[in-house]
Structure formats: structure tokens, C-alpha cells
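seq as requested:
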Amino acid sequence: MSHQEPEAKIFACSQSVHLAEQIAKNYGVPLGKVTFSKFSDGEFQPSFEESIRGLRVFIVCSTFPSSDNLMELLLMIDAAKRASARHITPVIPYFGYARQDRKDKPRVPIGAKLVAKLLETAGATRIMTMDLHADQIQGFFEKPVDHLFASTIFLPYLRSLHLDNLTIASPDMGGSKRAYAYSKFLESDVVICYKQRKAANVIGTMELIGEVKGRNVVLVDDMVDTGGTLAKAADLMIEKGAISVRAICTHAILSGDAYEKLENSQLSELIVTDSIPLKRESNKIKVVSCAPLFAEVMHMVQHNNSISGKFLM
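C-alpha cells:
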């Protein structure tokens, strides 16, 4: 008699429920039941409302602020471990604290390494994430990391626009590798913005390396936070003769007055994933769902199939 492997169960932290529902729907299982008890001081306790003994458990949670999201995920991993789940895979579409991946000045933490340690200590047996701010964060883990690329969902959308004279742009030197990878698939030119920051989230000067005159430009980045870099880059490119400027950013953090900056900029469109729920709608923002990609890779992981075909770049 052949033993049928039980299907995995998918659960969600409270801020990622909508995305988790879409992933579960694409995967073909109902979203698992979990409740959160809240104490009057704000402390909370998650509880799985169904048996997970001996199963693979996926816990969907983007760890954007507040830090309650991360704490929720850690508590759920610990609860799953103590409920005898066999495999515990946090699915973290947006991995918070990833910008703190090294000591860039004295006496600062390496936050991404600390988060990796917390996840493993809680009981994670595998980690699944998308477009990390720095690839080397994978090396902070002792457990397997499935690092997915949003390019697999952005490229078909870009192709559907049928843009002539396409040029891919990186908003800074650090993103040039990503820009070159996109340009290889789209057979397009590349330009790079050179910026110097006065402080975190504050740009001093910006210059352009490359030609944009008469081109349709697509800026590519892993995240958009204040929107300052994108707005400034778009305005600079239009000034230099670009026909249109779009931006592709995986994670839409959009803090502070980012929406106003984007709406008042020369950007014709900002294309993002639903790794972080939008705070509000904007006619300049187009959301491409990452749920089908995660569901497919989760299915492959559950059934021990190779996922290398999912890594376009």
C-alpha cells in the first residue's frame, strides 16, 4: 500500500492574510485557521486551531513595520514547533531589516543576521523569501533558503507593454546587477543613476551614466520606501530627453509622503508586487501579484521537485 504524503497547511500572520489567501487559493488548499488572543497591554498569543502534527507548515508573513509582524511570525513558528509540525517554512515575501546587512559605520547592528538567528532559534527548518535587499543574507542562515525573483512575474508584464526603444535603468550603483539581468532578457540598453546621500532616505546629488534621449526607460529596484530616489531619477531622465519613465519595485514600502512624491513626479507608472499591502490606491501604481509564484514554489518544495527553473535571474 503506497503511503500518500499529506498536503501541506498554509497559515497567515494577521497583516499578510490577504496575500496568504491568494497563495492558498493558487496552491489549492484552504487557508489554515489560527487565532490571536490579545492581552490588554497589547501582548498577543497565536494559536493554531487545527492539528499540524507531522505536517509541513507554511507561515506567510511579510516582516514590514511594526516589529509586531516579526514577533507574530516568531511566536507562530515556536507554536508550530511545539505542536510537532515536521517542517516549518516561514514564507517571507518582504524580509524586513534586510537593509541592515553589514556594518556600514561603527557601533551599528547587523539586523538581517539577527533576524535570521531569531527565525532559526524559533524553529524554522526552511526559509522562503523574494528579492532580498542583499543576496548575501542567504548566507546568514544555516537552513535552506529559497530566494525567489520577482522578475519572473515582472518580465511578462513588461513584455506586454510592447515598449519601443526600451532602456533599463538602475537608480543606484548597487542595483546595477539587477538592471543588467533585466536588460539581458529584454535585449535592451542600461543606464545607471549615480547618487550621493546626505543621510538615510535623503539624496544629495544625482547624475546619470548613459543616454536616455528618445528612450522609454524602466527603473528597476528591490524596494520603494520614501519614493525620493525614483521621483528624482524620473524627473532627471525626462529632463535628459526620455520619452517615458516607469519603475519596477518589488516591495512597496511607501512610507511618509511617498504617494504624494510619486503622484507629483514624472513617473508614468510604478509596478509593484503585493508582498506588502498598499496603504491606499493610486492611479500610478500597478500591482502584479506574487501569489501564483509562491504557491507554485511551495508546491514544488512540498513534493520535493526541483525549483531551479523558477530562478530567471
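The two ends are 42 Å apart (CA to CA).
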